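Human: Not sure, check this?
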Amino acid sequence: MKLIAPQFVIPYRQGNKNDYNDALAIAEAAQRPNMRFVQPKPVEQQDVQMLHRMRERLNKQSTALVNQVRGMLAEYGIVIAKSKAAFRRAFPDILSDENNELTVKGRYIFTQLHEEFIDIEKRLKSCDAQILEERNTNPVCQRVETSPGIGPITSTAFYAAVGEGKDFSNGRHFSAWCGLVPKQHSSGGKDNLLGISKRGNAYLRTLFIHGARAVLQRCGGKQDRLSRWAYALAERKGFNKACVAVANKLARMTWAIAAREDEYRTFA
């Protein structure tokens, strides 16, 4: 069995979209010599991917709930800082303070919202515990975590998405799949490179960028080759551009560690 990404089949479809025309387009696309196919995921990867999707949904729900409560409290003249940590500290004190502007009905509603927030936080901690358990029993994740900026969430997300990464011929192909390489708009022999393409797995790309941000924040004063390069790049191009460039390099290193069954080695 071979899988084809839908965006590669669409150019071969003629006429309106229906089952018949889709089947013809799939048959035509499958015969192209340069067509890229997608390898089916084994059940183990699907389980880890499902765990990450559930965690991502819970994280979005938690953020949405915090923003909603902050907005509703502002209507009563009560302001909470923009962070979940500040929300966790301040919200119970607001509910227990009988001298603020909350009404009895309003306090009851906010109490229900607080209980909902606590329930989401418990489920998020359960997801994190399952991710740590997967990392501790998975040799691919353990090897990948030897790279700087890669933690349990990124390593297990990498395994869920590509396994050992051997479906890619090199690190640049994997980085391009993550959308971390420049978009090209060239013509007439003139190369014109734009911002990153943002194709492929947006969740994994976000995690690599978060890891790159951590590397950049701690590279000052370090003498290894990666830290010196990242620090010089940030000084020359600015923090945000350097962050994407470091994420690109982290993605390539992560692929090399996983596909070649190697570990990260520091070079002076």
